[in-house]
């Protein structure tokens, strides 16, 4: 996870607001939730510029059939959420060839 964040933030814009990252087991969902369980969330920080990205371990791991797929899912989720926070297309911040 740390490698993914480091690689993406090195490619991201220097003026991009910081992003805190947390990992939780699963999201707290309201009773009667019928949609797919989210694998992550991102929210603006309240006291300072930046965002907080939360990755939910159980939804991510249960959607991955192998270690390689888990790694790919983490990459995709982090790219998508950082692109939302930074208002950039994911391909502009993806450091992979």
Which properties best describe this structure?
3 strands; three-stranded mixed beta sheet; alpha+beta; 97 residues; 4 helices; single chain; 18% strand
Could you explain how this protein is built, in words?
This protein is α+β, with helices and mostly antiparallel strands and 97 residues long. The protein has a domain at 1-6 and 45-97. 41% of the residues lie in helices and 18% in strands. The protein contains four helices and three strands, in the order H-E-E-E-H-H-H. A three-stranded mixed beta sheet has the order 1-3-2.
| First-residue to last-residue Cα separation | 19 Å
Which regions are unreliable across 5 or more consecutive residues at pLDDT < 50? none
The amount of beta strand, in percent, is 15-25%
Subunit arrangement of the protein: single chain
- How are strands sequenced across the largest beta sheet? 1-3-2
Please give the structural blueprint.
Elements lengths: L1 H10 L7 E6 L15 E5 L6 E6 H6 L4 H20 L3 H4 L4
Parallel strand pairs: 1-3
Antiparallel strand pairs: 2-3
Quick structural summary:
The protein has 97 residues and is of the alpha+beta class. 41% of the residues lie in helices and 18% in strands.
